[in-house]
Spore cortex formation protein SpoVR/YcgB (Stage V sporulation) (Rhizobium giardinii), 511 residues
Amino acid sequence: MAKSATSQLLFHSSDWNFKTLSRAYDGIETIALDELGLNVYPNQLEIISAEQMLDAYSSVGMPLMYQHWSFGKRFVFEEHHYRKGHHGLAYELVINSNPCITYLMEGNTMAMQTLVTAHASFGHNHFFKNNYLFRQWTDANAILSYMEFSKKYIAKCEERHGTSAVEAILDSAHALMEQGVFRSRRPPRLSSKKEQERARERLEYEEQTYSDLWRTLPRSAERPNPEEAEREALERKKVLNLPEENLLYFLEKNSLILEPWQRELLRIVRVIAQYFYPQRQTKVMNEGCATFVHYTIINRLFDQGKISEGAILEMLHSHSSVVFQPTFDDPRYSGINPYALGFAMMQEIERICNNPTSEDRDWFPHIAGSGQWRETLLDAWANHRDESFILQYLSPALIRKFRLFLLTDQRNEKYCEVAAIHNERGYRAVRAALAKSYDIGANQPDVQVVDVDLLGDRQLRLRHNIKNGILLEEKERDATLQHVRHLWGYDVSLVGIDAETGKVRYECATA
């Protein structure tokens, strides 16, 4: 019996080879697809070294990334801290692509390779393929070919126009990446290879046929009356589709000084920014999904006798480290751990569906005692982001477990006020406040292009819609405006308007 049980193990030691990796993958896949009902892209596993992982860190986790000095600076920083032992490296890295590429560290033990394969190749993979934000805002089928094109294109631009000229555009584009995404409407899909080739031909044609003579035409000295000026302003705003929230998109399409190759660099940067936008909105859900999936799979493998006690203890030790939530007075505390919160909420959903309390039945009547925890989780993973997930599924029991309460801190008051405690009204207030803290739209500056007279002074007018009285840091604001001016070529002004009162809080412009 002992010999038979041992022979069922997927691996017998910490050493691994591609045969044991394949055997472990098959065991994981059976549970993930047949028992959990996951729907994943085809998987591609790659083994990388520590230096390759550091390189991936420095280039925002993307393979085939173009070269830029900021990536090299980040690489030196990460390598220094890694060599000094200040921090370790991730056990894996996963790419939202089709096929889904998972990079495994060559130094991992076989137990860790099993854990991270379940975590990344099935947990993250399922979330990438099925969550509505990734389906709506990214194209997993095209991202790798697009990154390959962008790397070659930027290298070609450096050869043709010089490294300094290319870096100057990329520096300004990187400074505007957070303002280079579509938030309220679907972005254009990535081009196919054929469409990309047509775009290259069009850019080359524009370069060959461009004429600068139009700028020498004399301007009319007549000034329109106020009513006519207002009509013209409304008309040009309509033509330019203003206001526009995506600054990089507007500059790419409308800047009067950028050459075709420079416009393409802006497009490359904003496509990458758009690719990462859903990940910023689903950090808790994405990591919670992957952690819940790997935890469920490794326990099922142990129950089936396919991994040993020593292996699962190693896995659970790593799992516990990942979901550890330091207390507020712990030196390691840096906020709420997204792994801890996401995993705990998904465990709560399983508990509520299987073993609800009377409190659970009051708060979650649609799922309490249904026994359909798989279906509930699959639906949540597909149809929610962090904000809506927390707002709908954070339970009073979990609020008590995490010891959450709500403080209000008014600038003109001497003391903080405890605004919500552990009662029914307090639970709702805590849940709403925590959900709002994960709303990117509420926590990032809302800066939009609102007007520009292309036939007049050509000054680009931006508006900052101030929320909750939070102003932009002056030094960073002015530096960013200079990057906008660099790409626009003319003066840029910014006005800060309070979103609640409509009052102007500040005005500034480039020199």
The beta strands are 43-48, 92-95, 100-105, 406-408, 417-420, 446-451, 460-466, 492-498, 504-509.
